[in-house]
Each structure stands twice: as C-alpha cells, then as structure tokens.
Design goal:
The protein is an alpha+beta fold and about 240 residues long. The protein is built from 6 helices and 16 strands. It is globular, with a radius of gyration of 21 Å.
Amino acid sequence: MLRLFTSASIACGIVLSAPASAQVIQGTATAIDGDTIDMTGTRIRLAHIDAPEALQTCDRAGDNWACGEDATEALTSILDGQPVSCTVINTDVYGLQVAVCQTRVFTLGREMVRRGMAVALDDAPYEYGEAAGIAQRMNYGLWASTFDLPAEWRAANPQEPERVVQSRPQPQAAQPEPERVYRDRFGCLIKGNRSRRGEWIYHLPGRPYYEQTRPEELFCTESEARAAGYRRSKA
C-alpha cells in the first residue's frame, strides 16, 4: 500500500518531443478509464501517466473508495466534450497508440496528475513532476487515500484479456451453432460505416478495407449490425 510517492525520476523528468512526422489524431473523445480515451473507435493511451484501473479500489479514511471509477469520471470532466488533439509518440504492448493529448484548456495526462487521479511515470517530463508535487502537497485525489500504484494493482489482480472468439456448439443434434462474437478487451470489433452514397455497411476484422474504415458504430455480432440497418461488406 502506498502512502507517500517519492521518485527521483519525476524530479528530473525528461521532456520527450515528438518528431515532425508524428501522427496527430483530432476529434472528440470519451474516457474509457483514467488514462485511456476513445476517439471515433480509436483507443489512445495517455502518455507519461498511469491511473487506477476501472475495478481498482483505494482506502480513504478507512472506507473502501472506488478510485478507479472516479479516475474515469475525472477524465470525463476534463474532456468536457471539447475537441481533442493527440500527438502519437509510441505504441504500447497491446498495440494501443500512446499519445500526448490536449484540449484548448488542458494537457489531459498532466491535468489528471495535478488532480491527484493519476501518477506520473518515470519517463514523464518535468511539468508532470511539478503537477504530482502539487497533488501530494494538497492531498488531492489519491493522495488523500492509501492506494496501490496501478501497476502493482494489475500485478496482484491479473485479468485474462478478451480475444476475438468463435463459440462452438456442444455435440448435440439439432443444436444451432452459436453466432460468432467479435470482441477484445477493449470492446466490440465489427465496424459499421455509413458511406457518402447512403449505404450502411459493416466490416469484419481481417476483411479488406477493415483497417482503413472509420466506424460510426461498433458491434460484437453480425446480427447486431444487421438489426441496426447495416449490410455486410461484399469485399
């Protein structure tokens, strides 16, 4: 359990500058958890921070506190429906793009640290360390509680990531084969796209045009997509 956060690396954090050719993603976003956003179907992890997991709890004055849920709510409050610009600097082990994201008002990751709802990582730039110092001195968020670092909590509470799976029927006669479910640990994978010609088409993972398709909606099964008015891509 953590009561005091001390890290020499935060005090001398290295500022990472993105190359001139770095990918920039812009649009409106929603919070998935305290350090991950979804921007029109693209999941992006905020650089330089680690926030409590969605199921993580902390101890505040002897009471169980859903700090993971509150971290998600804090990021939602910071986003506040504003346009977001993300500069991609890396890709994590899960294939998620890692980016520094900003609204007109805030750098999302740094503001989460300043509010005490995330911790700064060892590679965080100096200003993240300053934000962490403010949060600790003012007992904001996590610093008003006893908590495990998110990485330690994940290690103690491993969760098997969901994968795209195909259910198989039991060997019984007259049993219909269960419908295939397209889903991973981040959500549904079938992309529903509305073309300029007014066609509503859904694309399956692994099919042509899937990767470049920007979805209006995401579905876990083909029947869900058809029920919403989409037809399967011919290619």
